[in-house]
Amino acid sequence: MTSLINQTAAALAGLLADGSVSSVDVTRAHLDHIDAVEPDVHAFLHVARDAALATAARVDARRAAGEKLGPLAGVPIAIKDVLATHDMPTTSGSKILQGWIPPYDATVVRRIRDADLIPLGKTNMDEFAMGSSTEHSAYGPTHNPWDLDRIPGGSGGGSAAAVAAFEAPLALGSDTGGSIRQPAAVTGSVGVKPTYGGVSRYGAIALASSLDQVGPVTRTVLDAALLHDVIGGHDPLDSTSLTDAWPSMAAAAQAGLADGALKGVRIGVIKELNGAGFQAGVKQRFEETLALLSAAGAIVSEVSAPNFEYAVSAYYLILPAEASSNLARFDSVRFGIRVNPEDGPLTSERVMAATRDAGFGDEVKRRIILGTYALSAGYYDAYYGSAQKVRTLIQRDFAAAFDKVDLLVSPTAPTTAFKFGEKTEDPMAMYLNDITTIPANLAGIPGMSLPMGLAPEDGLPVGLQVMAPARADARLYTFGAAVEQLLEAHWGHTLLSQAPALANIEMFATEGGAV
Amino acid sequence: MSEITAEQVAHLANLARIDLSSAEIDRLTVELGQIVDSVARVAEVATPDVPATSHPMPLTNVFRDDVVVPSLTVDQALSGAPDRAGDKFRVPAILDEE
Description:
- The structure holds two protein chains of two kinds.
- Chain A has a domain at 4-259 and 447-509: Amidase signature (AS) domain (Amidase signature (AS) enzymes).
- Chain A is 40% helix and 12% strand.
- Chain A contains 17 helices and eleven strands.
- Chain A is globular, with a radius of gyration of 22 Å.
- Chain B is mainly alpha-helical.
- Chain B has a domain at 1-46: Histone, subunit A (Orthogonal Bundle), CATH 1.10.20.60.
- Chain B is 34% helix and 4% strand.
- Chain B is built from three helices and two strands; from the N terminus they run αααββ.
- Chain B has helices at residues 6-15, 22-39, 74-78; strands spanning 84-85, 88-89.
- In chain B, strands 1-2 form a two-stranded antiparallel sheet.
- In chain B, helix 1 (6-15) packs across helix 2.
- Chain B starts with 5 loop residues before the first helix and ends in a 9-residue tail after the last strand.
- Chains A and B meet through helix 10, helix 11, helix 12, helix 13 and helix 14 of A and helix 1 and helix 2 of B.
- Chain B: Heterotrimer of A, B and C subunits.
């Protein structure tokens, strides 16, 4: 017996459209499952149970009245807490915004509401999206559904864990240096960072404005494409939003399911993202996937991107510099908490400094100070200026590679999910974990992560990263859907069907039989 | 090796308006030194002939029509403020002295 929570968003959309199930049933099934597994997973910072059920009932009523609804109408979705929601608290994982309810919706949130999706709640994240593990959330970490002692990735560990633990079929994420793709990899789910400017950031609490991008977090490539179609496209409220007319990503994903979709596709393996420091089981699954691709008719070759070795360094100058500027808005005046200094005069400056000391966590302070340093007079050229030049070199590496191949691939992350506390004491070790995902953000190109197996040594998910030229997001979906189909045919099942049952569900299964 | 001192970190914290404790300053001094040593490698390839990229998809002159559109009401704009006085944000003294 397959329950409603195990369905893909595409399958749920079909059941809803033909009247087999109601949105209230689907929404309640997910809310009940959230209640059951949240004590273990902690993917959510806020669950909007009553509002979700009320919204679902309204969608059901409109469908019953014969109204023509969008393809994902009535399907539940989780929203990363970096996105402003007018009816739910929005904290970006920080104490400084505890309890803040924005007076407006982010554009992507408005678009999912307009498309009649059902917001279930807000998902956990590293504070202001700074991190790769959710250990930097001010509200405690999210646990990886595959192993509760391990990280779910970050910063969007909450959204990835929510879909991987079947708490939601869809989620929204944001990706500044891998925050959608790396959590997807370590939780066995799918995540897409669209082309920079492809999805509006209006109402996304800014981390690094030249890198941030909002995108879909799902369990299948087609579901990601369906969600991308809802959230993508030009938004006049975001001055970095591209005015392109985008093709249907869902149609692109469907095209990938056709026979021979991989035939003749030129795949480049990035030499610099396949070497030392990568876990044996990650490399093994990657090599096996490349062999499957070749057998399916893809042309696999190696390409070199010599400047990628400088990408992490450039990123950890550009990101802190932009973050230190963006986070200056937390001034204890317009939103968020206000904390008075323990002694001395109560001036605006001193109240602001006391508030930011109390409201920001260690990682946020570290990056603000680093960014302030990198932008200081006398250091600007050596650090920020040089990092921007590295950015040009990385774009040139991509351009040269895409002259030879259609798509680039690498493991999404060097390792499978690590244990809590393993890297928190060593910031550089945590930063180096992002080596695979950062180049796409520096160049603005789209990237996807999808599962490519379990590492033999620890039984944990391994992700395949696929990158396409800027604006070629559709190519990612066609290829991603084809690879997903190829791998699942090879395994005989989906990857997430192999995830261990969570404790409470096991108890329930023992009592009640099949779940 | 970068030579980041505790005094420098204290100065940066003041610029960034974060009231760090001395323990935080000591720890950050060490961490910042390590991070800066690592990321300073960018200078190896950032030669004068390479132009800087500030924005991955360059767009210029993004304008909208000069017409009034709905915006937040005063109450909405003030809804998240820790303190307000009527239609205004209430802030602590701006100047240090009376």
